[in-house]
Specification:
Elements (H helix, E strand, L loop, with lengths): L17 H25 L3 E7 L5 H9 L7 E5 L5 H4 L5 H4 L8 E5 L8 H4 L5 H20 L3 E8 L2 H13 L9 H8 L1 H14 L7 E5 L3 H17 L12 H11 L1
Parallel strand pairs: 1-3, 1-4, 2-3, 4-5
Length: 260
Amino acid sequence: MSNHQVSLSQLQHPTLSEQEYNEALAPLQTELMALQLGLYQTGKRAIIVLEGTDAAGKGGVIRRLVDKMDPRGLRVYPIGPPTTEELSRHYLQRFWRRIPHAGQLVIFDRSWYGRVLTERVECALEENIWRRAYHEINEFERLLVDNGDILIKLFLTIDADEQLRRFQNRFNQPDKRWKLTAADLDSREHWDEYQQAYQDMLTNTNHSERMWHVVPSNDKCFSRIECLTYVRNELAKYVDPTAIELMPPEVYQRAQKILC
Protein backbone atom coordinates (compact mmCIF):
# COMPACT_ATOMS: atom_id res chain seq x y z
CA MET A 1 0.00 0.00 0.00
CA SER A 2 2.86 2.37 -0.75
CA ASN A 3 0.82 5.17 -2.25
CA HIS A 4 1.15 8.94 -2.13
CA GLN A 5 -2.67 9.19 -1.87
CA VAL A 6 -3.25 6.55 0.84
CA SER A 7 -6.04 7.56 3.22
CA LEU A 8 -5.82 5.97 6.66
CA SER A 9 -9.51 6.50 7.33
CA GLN A 10 -10.49 4.48 4.24
CA LEU A 11 -8.18 1.51 4.67
CA GLN A 12 -9.63 -1.98 4.66
CA HIS A 13 -8.22 -4.42 7.23
CA PRO A 14 -7.70 -7.91 5.73
CA THR A 15 -7.49 -10.98 7.94
CA LEU A 16 -5.42 -14.16 7.85
CA SER A 17 -6.32 -17.43 9.54
CA GLU A 18 -4.06 -18.83 12.23
CA GLN A 19 -3.35 -21.84 10.02
CA GLU A 20 -2.34 -19.62 7.08
CA TYR A 21 -0.19 -17.58 9.45
CA ASN A 22 1.61 -20.61 10.87
CA GLU A 23 2.23 -22.06 7.41
CA ALA A 24 3.73 -18.82 6.10
CA LEU A 25 5.79 -17.72 9.11
CA ALA A 26 8.68 -20.21 9.33
CA PRO A 27 9.58 -20.16 5.60
CA LEU A 28 9.60 -16.35 5.64
CA GLN A 29 11.84 -16.26 8.70
CA THR A 30 14.28 -18.66 7.04
CA GLU A 31 14.42 -16.49 3.93
CA LEU A 32 15.00 -13.38 6.05
CA MET A 33 17.81 -15.14 7.90
CA ALA A 34 19.49 -15.94 4.59
CA LEU A 35 19.04 -12.39 3.29
CA GLN A 36 20.56 -10.97 6.45
CA LEU A 37 23.55 -13.24 5.90
CA GLY A 38 23.64 -11.97 2.32
CA LEU A 39 23.90 -8.41 3.62
CA TYR A 40 26.97 -9.42 5.60
CA GLN A 41 28.55 -11.24 2.67
CA THR A 42 28.03 -8.31 0.29
CA GLY A 43 28.77 -5.54 2.78
CA LYS A 44 25.41 -3.87 2.18
CA ARG A 45 23.66 -1.90 4.92
CA ALA A 46 19.93 -2.04 5.64
CA ILE A 47 17.69 0.15 7.79
CA ILE A 48 14.14 -0.81 8.72
CA VAL A 49 11.94 1.91 10.23
CA LEU A 50 8.75 0.96 12.04
CA GLU A 51 6.21 3.62 12.93
CA GLY A 52 2.53 3.30 13.68
CA THR A 53 -0.44 3.74 15.91
CA ASP A 54 0.16 2.88 19.55
CA ALA A 55 -0.70 -0.82 20.14
CA ALA A 56 -0.51 -1.56 16.40
CA GLY A 57 1.92 -4.42 17.03
CA LYS A 58 5.37 -3.08 16.12
CA GLY A 59 7.06 -5.12 18.84
CA GLY A 60 5.40 -8.34 17.71
CA VAL A 61 6.49 -7.71 14.13
CA ILE A 62 10.08 -7.06 15.19
CA ARG A 63 10.27 -10.22 17.30
CA ARG A 64 9.15 -12.36 14.39
CA LEU A 65 11.27 -10.49 11.90
CA VAL A 66 14.52 -11.18 13.76
CA ASP A 67 13.68 -14.60 15.23
CA LYS A 68 16.14 -16.61 13.08
CA MET A 69 18.63 -13.84 12.29
CA ASP A 70 22.23 -13.74 13.50
CA PRO A 71 22.27 -11.22 16.37
CA ARG A 72 25.91 -10.34 15.61
CA GLY A 73 24.83 -8.53 12.45
CA LEU A 74 21.66 -7.05 13.87
CA ARG A 75 20.75 -4.05 16.01
CA VAL A 76 17.28 -3.08 17.25
CA TYR A 77 16.89 0.43 18.63
CA PRO A 78 13.73 1.22 20.63
CA ILE A 79 13.50 5.00 20.41
CA GLY A 80 12.10 6.89 23.37
CA PRO A 81 12.27 10.53 24.43
CA PRO A 82 15.69 12.16 23.87
CA THR A 83 18.02 12.53 26.83
CA THR A 84 19.08 15.90 28.17
CA GLU A 85 22.37 15.58 26.29
CA GLU A 86 20.56 14.67 23.06
CA LEU A 87 18.21 17.63 23.45
CA SER A 88 21.23 19.93 23.37
CA ARG A 89 22.02 18.77 19.81
CA HIS A 90 20.18 18.61 16.49
CA TYR A 91 17.40 16.01 16.81
CA LEU A 92 18.82 13.89 13.95
CA GLN A 93 22.23 13.57 15.60
CA ARG A 94 21.22 10.65 17.81
CA PHE A 95 20.11 8.70 14.73
CA TRP A 96 23.30 9.32 12.76
CA ARG A 97 25.13 7.48 15.55
CA ARG A 98 22.95 4.41 14.96
CA ILE A 99 23.30 4.10 11.20
CA PRO A 100 24.49 0.55 10.38
CA HIS A 101 28.02 -0.51 9.56
CA ALA A 102 28.79 -2.44 6.38
CA GLY A 103 26.96 -5.77 6.37
CA GLN A 104 24.67 -4.80 9.24
CA LEU A 105 20.89 -4.62 9.57
CA VAL A 106 19.42 -1.99 11.91
CA ILE A 107 15.78 -1.77 13.00
CA PHE A 108 14.30 1.39 14.50
CA ASP A 109 11.27 0.84 16.73
CA ARG A 110 10.07 4.42 16.25
CA SER A 111 12.50 6.86 14.76
CA TRP A 112 13.30 10.38 13.62
CA TYR A 113 9.62 10.71 12.72
CA GLY A 114 8.90 11.53 16.34
CA ARG A 115 9.66 15.11 15.32
CA VAL A 116 6.48 15.29 13.22
CA LEU A 117 4.42 12.96 15.42
CA THR A 118 4.83 12.98 19.22
CA GLU A 119 6.67 16.29 19.34
CA ARG A 120 4.07 17.88 17.09
CA VAL A 121 1.03 16.49 18.90
CA GLU A 122 2.06 16.34 22.54
CA CYS A 123 5.09 18.58 22.99
CA ALA A 124 3.61 21.76 21.56
CA LEU A 125 6.41 22.08 19.02
CA GLU A 126 6.01 25.26 17.02
CA GLU A 127 4.35 24.62 13.66
CA ASN A 128 7.15 26.13 11.59
CA ILE A 129 9.62 23.74 13.28
CA TRP A 130 7.72 20.50 12.65
CA ARG A 131 6.82 21.58 9.13
CA ARG A 132 10.50 22.26 8.42
CA ALA A 133 11.27 18.76 9.68
CA TYR A 134 9.62 17.18 6.64
CA HIS A 135 12.34 18.67 4.45
CA GLU A 136 15.08 17.76 6.94
CA ILE A 137 13.90 14.16 7.17
CA ASN A 138 13.59 13.82 3.40
CA GLU A 139 17.13 15.10 2.96
CA PHE A 140 18.43 12.83 5.74
CA GLU A 141 16.88 9.77 4.08
CA ARG A 142 18.03 10.87 0.63
CA LEU A 143 21.61 10.99 1.92
CA LEU A 144 21.25 7.46 3.30
CA VAL A 145 19.86 6.05 0.06
CA ASP A 146 22.39 7.92 -2.09
CA ASN A 147 25.11 6.43 0.10
CA GLY A 148 23.90 2.93 -0.75
CA ASP A 149 21.84 2.15 2.35
CA ILE A 150 18.70 0.05 1.92
CA LEU A 151 15.85 1.93 3.59
CA ILE A 152 12.58 0.13 4.35
CA LYS A 153 9.75 2.06 6.01
CA LEU A 154 6.73 0.32 7.55
CA PHE A 155 3.71 2.09 9.01
CA LEU A 156 1.32 -0.09 11.04
CA THR A 157 -2.17 1.28 11.55
CA ILE A 158 -5.21 0.15 13.55
CA ASP A 159 -8.57 1.81 13.97
CA ALA A 160 -9.80 3.48 17.15
CA ASP A 161 -12.01 0.57 18.24
CA GLU A 162 -9.18 -1.95 17.88
CA GLN A 163 -6.79 0.26 19.82
CA LEU A 164 -9.31 0.56 22.65
CA ARG A 165 -9.79 -3.21 22.70
CA ARG A 166 -6.02 -3.80 22.91
CA PHE A 167 -5.55 -1.21 25.66
CA GLN A 168 -8.42 -2.76 27.63
CA ASN A 169 -6.86 -6.20 27.15
CA ARG A 170 -3.56 -4.93 28.55
CA PHE A 171 -5.26 -3.30 31.52
CA ASN A 172 -7.40 -6.34 32.37
CA GLN A 173 -4.57 -8.89 32.28
CA PRO A 174 -1.99 -8.53 35.09
CA ASP A 175 0.74 -10.16 33.02
CA LYS A 176 0.22 -7.56 30.27
CA ARG A 177 -0.54 -4.50 32.38
CA TRP A 178 3.09 -3.37 32.22
CA LYS A 179 2.63 -2.80 28.49
CA LEU A 180 0.07 -0.03 29.10
CA THR A 181 1.89 3.24 29.70
CA ALA A 182 1.03 6.86 30.37
CA ALA A 183 2.19 7.59 26.83
CA ASP A 184 -0.43 5.14 25.52
CA LEU A 185 -3.16 6.95 27.43
CA ASP A 186 -1.89 10.30 26.16
CA SER A 187 -2.00 9.09 22.58
CA ARG A 188 -5.52 7.77 23.10
CA GLU A 189 -6.67 11.19 24.25
CA HIS A 190 -5.05 12.76 21.17
CA TRP A 191 -6.44 10.22 18.67
CA ASP A 192 -7.70 12.74 16.12
CA GLU A 193 -4.57 14.89 16.26
CA TYR A 194 -2.38 11.82 15.73
CA GLN A 195 -4.44 10.64 12.77
CA GLN A 196 -3.88 14.00 11.11
CA ALA A 197 -0.16 13.91 11.95
CA TYR A 198 0.17 10.39 10.51
CA GLN A 199 -1.63 11.41 7.35
CA ASP A 200 0.57 14.49 6.91
CA MET A 201 3.70 12.44 7.54
CA LEU A 202 2.76 9.87 4.91
CA THR A 203 1.93 12.58 2.40
CA ASN A 204 5.10 14.60 2.93
CA THR A 205 7.74 11.87 3.29
CA ASN A 206 6.76 9.32 0.63
CA HIS A 207 9.32 9.52 -2.18
CA SER A 208 10.50 6.99 -4.79
CA GLU A 209 13.13 4.83 -3.04
CA ARG A 210 11.97 6.09 0.34
CA MET A 211 8.35 4.93 0.13
CA TRP A 212 6.16 4.06 3.10
CA HIS A 213 4.50 0.67 3.14
CA VAL A 214 1.24 1.09 5.05
CA VAL A 215 0.09 -2.09 6.77
CA PRO A 216 -3.52 -2.40 8.04
CA SER A 217 -2.96 -4.13 11.37
CA ASN A 218 -6.30 -4.80 13.06
CA ASP A 219 -5.52 -8.48 12.43
CA LYS A 220 -2.11 -9.36 13.89
CA CYS A 221 -1.67 -12.49 11.76
CA PHE A 222 -2.14 -10.52 8.55
CA SER A 223 0.03 -7.63 9.75
CA ARG A 224 2.99 -9.80 10.69
CA ILE A 225 3.02 -11.83 7.49
CA GLU A 226 2.53 -8.69 5.39
CA CYS A 227 5.46 -6.94 7.09
CA LEU A 228 7.81 -9.93 6.83
CA THR A 229 6.86 -10.50 3.21
CA TYR A 230 7.47 -6.88 2.30
CA VAL A 231 10.87 -6.80 4.03
CA ARG A 232 11.82 -10.08 2.32
CA ASN A 233 10.87 -8.69 -1.07
CA GLU A 234 12.69 -5.40 -0.54
CA LEU A 235 15.93 -7.02 0.67
CA ALA A 236 15.82 -9.46 -2.26
CA LYS A 237 16.01 -6.48 -4.63
CA TYR A 238 19.53 -5.79 -3.35
CA VAL A 239 20.77 -9.21 -2.26
CA ASP A 240 20.61 -12.10 -4.74
CA PRO A 241 19.14 -15.03 -2.75
CA THR A 242 20.78 -17.53 -5.11
CA ALA A 243 24.26 -16.14 -4.37
CA ILE A 244 24.06 -16.47 -0.58
CA GLU A 245 26.39 -19.01 1.01
CA LEU A 246 24.80 -20.39 4.17
CA MET A 247 28.11 -22.15 4.82
CA PRO A 248 31.50 -21.71 3.13
CA PRO A 249 32.24 -24.70 0.85
CA GLU A 250 35.40 -25.62 2.74
CA VAL A 251 33.50 -25.71 6.05
CA TYR A 252 30.74 -27.79 4.47
CA GLN A 253 33.24 -30.31 3.15
CA ARG A 254 35.01 -30.63 6.53
CA ALA A 255 31.65 -30.97 8.29
CA GLN A 256 30.69 -33.79 5.95
CA LYS A 257 33.87 -35.66 6.83
CA ILE A 258 33.70 -35.08 10.57
CA LEU A 259 29.99 -35.10 11.29
CA CYS A 260 28.47 -37.49 8.76
